[in-house]
Amino acid sequence: VISYCRFLHTTWKKIPYDASTFLIGVVFCFFGGLYPTVFAAIQAAKHSGVTTVRKAVSALADEALIIINESKKDDDVDADKDGKKDVDQISNREYVLRKSRLIMAKMNP
């Protein structure tokens, strides 16, 4: 989901301003009765600090990507060298505890 959103964001940044305004207008046009509500919500977001929210969501997405990559590395660990991944040999409870510890260790508070 995060990678998809990043792709959409970079694609959106490449679109010329006039084309993006046109696309937004077309989307609003086909919302029908919801047009005033959608337009009011967007205007309220712009006036109430959408840039702050955008920065916060971006920071959370970066943090999530770091944790996802570390979790993938943790899934490949075979500490006892028996040829089977450790995560395949533990109970569900141990798995949740292991991943919770990983998240707490890798997350930037």
Q: If you had to describe this structure to a student in words, what would you say it looks like?
A:
By secondary structure, the protein is mainly α. Helix content is 73%, strand content 0%. The chain is built from 5 helices and no strands. The protein has helices spanning 2-14, 17-29, 35-47, 50-75, 92-106. α4 (50-75) packs across α5. It is elongated and about 60 Å long. It starts with a helix and ends with a helix. The model has no long low-confidence stretch (mean pLDDT 86).
- Basic shape: elongated
Number of strands: 0
How big a fraction of the residues is strand? under 5%
Mind summarizing the main beta sheet?
A: none
H-E string: HHHHH
How far apart the termini lie comes to 23 Å
Helix-and-strand structural type: mainly alpha
What gyration radius follows from the Cα positions, in whole Å?
A: 21 Å
Residue share in helix: over 70%
